[in-house]
């Protein structure tokens, strides 16, 4: 199978360069790596890797940039793998992914169980991630199970299932929960699987992410938008929204390093006010 790895990136050329360089350790190399930036400065320079690199400039925003990657890859690739620009894949990742798609023709999407996720635990350094992965021993007992959601930092698709699917550009900038929305629509075409045979480390790098105010607004507006669209279940959406609201309230009293909880809380409040006024829209963050 022809496998394209697509990486959307903004303002993190050094980090994405390390991520792509790490891919040289893959047992099964990608056939191409497609880097999608929003400006020339987003693209790394001086990379020496044993696979072709394609560079694309697209309108800023995770959904816009991922769509540009899909538009390019779907013309040739059999499988596309979206890695975040700070995701370091374990060396068997692409080989195991190809094996899974080859063995099951009903499979249309996969995601992995992570060794560590800095987005949840606090940012992880690239040197620490490399050291952990270099000494990592794959699990002996494989565990593949059906799922309804693919984690956006590492998700792979069969291109025949997503030829007409694109990420929702009504979710601007960071595109919060775009992976949930895309997964729900992809599920109409076949099976989604989460596997411990697919793994790696998500650094959770803070630089280059959207502001606390914008993210806080998206934590409310995007959830309600996707619930109305029918791609996020009401229970899951409200649990996620209220959990983030509680975390922002507590964090505003005890500020955390690198996380703008007060900005997020303010964004939450503006979204709820907009909801009451009947003008809430995920795209409002563009003007914030």
TrEMBL record:
Transmembrane regions listed in the UniProt entry: none
InterPro entries (UniProt xref): Glyco_trans_2-like, Glycosyltransf_2, Nucleotide-diphossugar_trans
Keyword Glycosyltransferase: yes
Single GO term (MF): glycosyltransferase activity
Domain Glycosyltransferase 2-like as annotated: residue spans: 5-120
Enzyme's top EC category: transferase
Keyword Glycosyltransferase recorded: yes
PANTHER family hit by this protein: GLYCOSYLTRANSFERASE (PTHR43685), SLR2126 PROTEIN (PTHR43685:SF3)
Listed name of the protein: Glycosyltransferase
Organism lineage string: Bacteria, Pseudomonadati, Pseudomonadota, Alphaproteobacteria, Sphingomonadales
């Amino acid at each position: 199978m022809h496998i394209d790895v697509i990486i959307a990136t903004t303002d993190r050329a050094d980090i994405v360069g390390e991520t792509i360089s790490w891919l040289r350790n893959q047992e099964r190399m990608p056939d191409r790596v497609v880097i999608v930036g929003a400006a020339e400065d987003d693209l790394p320079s001086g990379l020496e890797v044993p696979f072709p690199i394609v560079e694309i400039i697209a309108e800023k925003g995770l959904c816009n940039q991922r769509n540009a990657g899909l538009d390019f890859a779907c013309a040739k690739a059999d499988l596309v793998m979206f890695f975040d620009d700070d995701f370091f894949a374990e060396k068997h990742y692409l080989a195991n992914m190809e094996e899974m798609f080859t063995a099951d023709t009903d499979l249309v999407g996969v995601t992995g169980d992570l060794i560590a996720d800095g987005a949840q635990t606090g940012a992880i350094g690239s040197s620490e991630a490399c050291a952990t992965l270099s000494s990592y021993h794959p699990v002996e007992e494989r565990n593949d199970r059906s799922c309804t959601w693919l984690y956006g930092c590492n998700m792979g698709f069969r291109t025949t299932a997503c030829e007409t699917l694109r990420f929702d550009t009504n979710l601007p900038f960071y595109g919060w929960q775009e992976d949930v929305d895309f997964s729900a629509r992809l599920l109409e075409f076949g099976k989604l699987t989460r596997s411990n045979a697919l793994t790696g480390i998500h650094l959770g790098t803070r630089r280059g992410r959207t502001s606390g105010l914008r993210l806080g607004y998206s934590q409310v507006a995007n959830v309600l938008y996707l619930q109305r669209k029918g791609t996020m279940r009401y229970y899951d959406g409200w649990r996620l929204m209220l959990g983030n609201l509680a975390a922002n309230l507590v964090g505003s009293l005890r500020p955390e390093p690198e996380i703008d909880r007060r900005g997020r809380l303010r964004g939450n409040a503006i979204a709820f006010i907009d909801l009451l006024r009947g003008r809430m829209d995920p795209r409002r963050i563009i003007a914030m």
